Amino acid sequence: MAEIDFRRKINWHRRYRSPQGVKTEREILRIFESDRGRIINSPAIRRLQQKTQVFPLERNAAVRTRLTHSLEVQQVGRYIAKEILSRLKELRLLEEYGLDELTGPFESIVEMACLMHDIGNPPFGHFGEAAINDWFRQRLAPEDAASQPLTDDRCQVMALRLQEGEDALNALRRKVRQDLSHFEGNAQGIRMVHTLLRMNLTWAQVGCILKYTRPAWWRGEPPATHSYLMKKPGFYFSEEAYVERLRKELDLHIYSRFPLTWIMEAADDISYCVADLEDAVEKRIFTVEQLYQHLHDAWETHTKGSLFSQVVENAWEKSRANSLSRSTEDQFFMYLRVNTLNKLVPYAAQRFIDNLPQIFSGEFNHALLEDDSDYSQLLELYKNVAIKEVFSHPDVEQLELQGYRVISGLLEIYRPLLQLTLADFTELVENERVRRLPIESRLFQKLSTRHRLAYVEAVSKLSRENGDYAVMEYYYRCRLIQDYISGMTDLYAWDEYRRLMAVE
User: Fold this and answer.
1) Which residues form the HD domain (predicted)?
2) 323 pLDDT tier (thresholds 50, 70, 90)
3) So what's the pLDDT on residue 167?
4) Which own/partner pairs from 406-409 qualify as long-range (CB within 8 Å, at least 24 positions apart)?
5) Which of 341, 371, 394 is the last residue in one of the domains?
């Protein structure tokens, strides 16, 4: 078993202009304070205030956005980190694990990872992801496209852009097609931090948001040893070299995870489960009395002293006792959150410590709150009630379908940029406007400067002499469109769709 020494993981160096000669605890903490400033002041964090948590296009400020959710996750992550450090101190293991002078950075890395864990999410959440993936999957033809007629000639141009040519390029074409058809919020978060926003965070801070370790171009089943860690795409082909360097800097084996990421994940799991139910009551999808009944009915056995009685029934009884002077809803959720945190945070912290050898190596193939315990069952209870009673509610489903249509529609509007020949698009990028391309010129002008510059930088590193130049240019062009539309807020995407479809 490898020695556990967090000084090998909490790497405070950066890819660009890395600090030199750092030795003291104060100097190291100052570096991570700089990370905090870069993250909190980034536009990606500000945009979370107008992105969906559960209810798209919600005008009620009491209902959570991605930002308010992320702030709650940040607090829970800090709580878990402090609990872990406190227990390690009691066990006199801080110094043995190289954490005696790194407790501040340990907490800060977790907190900031929690705050930015959703920055890559597109408008309308998972339905936005599905819309992007479905649209590209249908238009970047699959391998058997020759046997599937394409009724739209312009669609066929897009498909063939990644098909025709020398056989030697087939593997690359398959790779980029798979990559572009597996947009994922976590992978987009890595792309935003490194490529789009160029935040130049420390290696440890970026490592903490690499939640899943599967490349987006992966095909087939992941290895059984990493099946959980690779259950979703974690990074794109465009960031492959960066992630390879990240692994080297953090001493991670391929497809393994950074140790503190398990804490961020647990904080997210604990936070959103209660929050989704509270938001549903705020939206009048059901009453707090109905929610309690849903939870009661879904819990299998009711015995005195059970975890359900300690958490849910205790919250219900206390809220009823104070109902004459205070809102039953507010009281119930306050006690439910407190009770849930007081049970799940210590459990998550102990699971982290108990499994530290595997977690430190990055190969613990589970979530901290994924086991056969009552604590895991309590989280599943919250999730199952939300799935059954909230996410399947007609009002929620209608909004999600509208979001799917908005993202699909925006991609369709910008499709002319993807149908241009390499020569025409290159001319458009160089001149920004081309008289014979009036529609494409106007669409190109609407793209974010930041995203256009990322495209230009990526393509400038390609060699025009290489046979794969056309495929890679087209890959980055598709990324350009994905970056722009996925970076929109819910309200901006909705308004932009209405404007461009002339339905004001």
Assistant:
1) 66-273
2) low
3) 64
4) 406/123, 406/124, 406/131, 406/493, 406/494, 406/497, 407/122, 407/123, 407/124, 407/127, 407/128, 407/131, 407/132, 407/135, 407/485, 407/493, 408/131, 408/134, 408/135, 409/497, 409/501
5) 394
For range 368-374, the mean pLDDT: 96
pLDDT per residue as tens digits for the range 200-237: 999 999 999 999 999 999 999 999 999 999 999 999 99
Number of Cβ within 10 Å of residue 20's Cβ equals 6
Residues 405 and 486 in one domain: yes
CA 405/CA 325 separation, integer angstroms = 46
Cα–Cα distance measured from residue 391 to residue 54, given in angstroms and rounded to the nearest whole number: 8
- pLDDT score of 475: 97
Model confidence pLDDT, tens digit, residues 444-496 = 999 999 999 999 999 999 999 988 999 999 999 999 999 999 999 999 999 99
Residues 347, 350: Cα–Cα separation, whole Å: 5
| Cβ count within 10 A of residue 37 | 11
Helix (H) or strand (E) holding 471: helix 469-486
Domain-embedded: residue 401: yes
User: In 3-state terms, what secondary structure has residue 481?
Assistant: helix
Q: Are residues 495 and 389 in the same domain?
A: no
Instruction: Count, in order, helices (H) and strands (E) of the chain.
Output: 24, 2
Q: Residue 275: exposed, middle, or buried by beta-carbon count in 10 A (0-12, 13-18, 19+)?
A: buried
The CATH number of whichever domain residue 301 belongs to comes to 1.10.3410
User: What secondary structure letter does DSSP report for 389?
Assistant: I
Partnered with residue 14 across adjacent β-strands are 202
- Residues of the domain holding 447: 395-501
Nearest to 398 by CA among 285, 498, 298, 474: 285
Would residue 468 count as lying in a domain?
Answer: yes
Backbone torsions φ then ψ of 283, nearest 5 degrees: -85, 5
Tokens matching residue 365? 């193939």
- Note the pLDDT tens digit of each residue in 114-139: 999 999 999 999 999 999 999 999 99
275 occurs within a structural domain: no
Average pLDDT over the chain, rounded to an integer: 91
The residue with tokens 């980034």 is 42
Indicate if 298 and 311 belong to the same structural domain.
yes
Residue 367 placed within a domain: yes
The domain boundary, picked from 373, 394, 415, lies at 394
Supply the pLDDT for residue 325: 56
Total number of domains constituting the chain: 2
Instruction: Give the pLDDT confidence of 338-352 residue by residue, as tens digits.
Output: 999 999 999 999 999
**pLDDT over 70 at 26, yes or no:** yes
Contacts 24+ apart (CB under 8 A), 453-458: 454/195, 454/196, 454/479, 454/480, 454/483, 455/429, 455/479, 455/480, 456/429, 458/195, 458/238
